[in-house]
Amino acid sequence: MVDRSPLIIDGSKKSEFDKDVDDLLIDWGNLNDVDMTSTPPINTNAAIFDGTNWTPVRGEVITQAPDPIPALANTYYTLQVNGAGTGLTYFQEFEDFANRTDGLINQTTAFETFLQKDIQIPALGNYAITTSYIWSLDNQASDFRGRLLANSNTIFEHRQEPKDSAGGGITLPNTGGGNSNTGTDQRHLASNTFILENVPSGILDLDFEFTGSSDNQSATVYQASIMIRRLKR
Hints:
Elements: H1 16-24, E1 46-49, E2 54-57, E3 75-81, E4 88-100, E5 104-106, E6 112-121, E7 125-136, E8 144-150, E9 153-160, E10 171-173, E11 179-181, E12 188-199, E13 202-212, E14 219-231
Antiparallel strand pairs: 1-2, 3-4, 4-14, 5-14, 6-13, 7-12, 7-14, 8-9, 8-13, 10-11
């Protein structure tokens, strides 16, 4: 039969719970597998097991983040165990983006910039860059060309011949001035993700450019976005 009577605490006597807690509060020096000499413990220390002994870990190992932490837009900080397993360090997460939704026509074979942004890279690391855009070309015998540049270096180039160029187009600004018609109702979506390794801190200039392989054809970009984020490994 279960005893459902209330628990009465006698303030003059220790409960069994208190005794159990006291048993856990053992002085470090009384533990024969704790290394007390290599790293003498101080207040607030923790301990890690090295396979043989427990070694105190000084609390200050968690203060490896810069002080003060720099206030960067779209930047986040998280704590993680460092590679040696001896404490905590910080990882500076980072993400940023650029977006443009008004269309543009290029009727030359020269690349023209559709979307550009200078990214402030916070720290040396590896970064993933995703570029997405909607394009069309009003000639099945020519190629649409799009490319992403990072500090004037080509990261990727997309070259594709459309399979259909029919339908009525829409009027958009032309890189040569004035407005033109896109010459087709087709819309093609492209998306690419690339990894840039060991990117140093500082400005990273990202440019998405486009053109056609023939003059007097309407290579068109309707919208584009660039997203960048730092990778943890």
